[in-house]
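Is this the right way to post structure tokens for a design question? Let me know if I should format differently. Anyway, here goes:
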């Protein structure tokens, strides 16, 4: 069949051909008089599949020239087209969108007239910077519409990796209890409780720290949290001088990167009933348990980020693949005026 290129659309004027293409292939947008308007991505795909020839001012346009024209007309057309082409080849119906999202995807075996989209899709290059605040807004927008947000990330060889992104409300069953008068001692950048009954009580009443023989070792973040919440006390071992919360927080900022950020994320997670431990061996800030760590494996890997922070997609890829390999959910904890959690999950559509 034949179509005519006009600005950023291709029009199929033959009513029979346009009806067949729309009804059987779910391409384009029907117009008055029986014509069918195709987006450039649809036209390029049909041209590549040798189902469509495109003309302009009476002359036929090759696939190469149509692709180049589209790339000069639409920003990031090459990336968007590769994602469109891949999803279409997987048997899904795809509709090109304008605005926030690049396309919407309908279930296999359905049509646009008898179903609703299951995904709103953004097509991006692996070299594109990742801004967490923008993505949380996009997640909220898609979830309000009852859909999922799907990111198609195109690498430099043209391979595509898909991630479903969704908001999540992680909740655990180990709510922090009140800690009685207990004293810990600051040594380097850790706090140690040497009294065995006190060590066991603090460890068992919230799963803080780690027992090293009869001594409980706490991280600075754990110590600050306990100091803020209870009657916990921290002292210098040599002078026995008490260290107030503001001074311990200042010490944490001086000795550790992103201390305030991690502190806010840790405090929020603890208030949700999660048991929080370091995620160092997984390359993240924290690993989190939703019940006793004595009885289960960590359910989440949590990485805290500022709402304004940016990262790159290769970093996301490493984190998500690792979390999948160890059977945990990977969460970004966005710390801003509020704390939000976003789950990243690799999928194969």
């Amino acid at each position: 069949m034949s179509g005519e290129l006009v600005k950023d659309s291709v029009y199929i004027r033959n009513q029979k051909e346009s009806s067949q293409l729309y009804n059987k292939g779910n391409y384009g947008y029907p117009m008055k008089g029986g014509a069918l308007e195709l987006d450039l991505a649809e036209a390029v795909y049909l041209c590549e599949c040798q189902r469509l020839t495109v003309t302009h001012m009476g002359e036929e346009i090759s696939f190469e020239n149509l692709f180049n024209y589209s790339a000069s007309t639409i920003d990031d057309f090459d990336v968007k087209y590769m994602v469109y082409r891949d999803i279409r080849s997987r048997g899904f119906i795809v509709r090109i969108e304008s605005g926030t999202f690049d396309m919407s995807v309908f279930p296999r075996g359905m049509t646009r007239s008898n179903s609703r989209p299951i995904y709103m899709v953004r097509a991006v290059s692996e070299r594109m910077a990742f801004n967490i605040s923008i993505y949380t807004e996009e997640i909220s927008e898609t979830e309000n519409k009852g859909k999922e947000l799907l990111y198609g990330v195109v690498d430099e060889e043209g391979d595509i990796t898909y991630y479903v992104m969704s908001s999540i409300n992680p909740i655990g069953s180990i709510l922090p209890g009140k800690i009685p008068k207990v004293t810990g001692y600051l040594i380097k950048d850790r706090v140690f409780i040497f009294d065995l009954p006190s060590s066991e009580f603090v460890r068992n009443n919230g799963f803080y720290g780690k027992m090293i023989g009869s001594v409980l070792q706490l991280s600075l973040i754990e110590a600050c949290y306990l100091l803020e919440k209870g009657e916990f006390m921290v002292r210098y071992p040599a002078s026995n001088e008490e260290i107030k919360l503001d001074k311990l927080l200042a010490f944490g900022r001086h000795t550790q990167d992103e201390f305030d950020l991690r502190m806010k994320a840790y405090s929020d997670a603890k208030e949700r009933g999660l048991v929080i431990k370091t995620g160092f061996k997984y390359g993240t800030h924290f690993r989190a348990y939703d019940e006793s760590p004595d009885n289960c494996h960590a359910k989440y890997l949590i990485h805290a980020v500022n709402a304004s922070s940016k990262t790159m997609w290769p970093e996301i890829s490493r984190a998500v693949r690792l979390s999948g390999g160890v059977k945990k959910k990977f969460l970004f904890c966005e710390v801003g005026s509020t704390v939000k959690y976003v789950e990243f999950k690799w999928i194969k559509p």
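Format looks fine. Someone answered above. Worth noting: The first helix runs from residue 15 to 25. The first strand starts at residue 2 and ends at 6.
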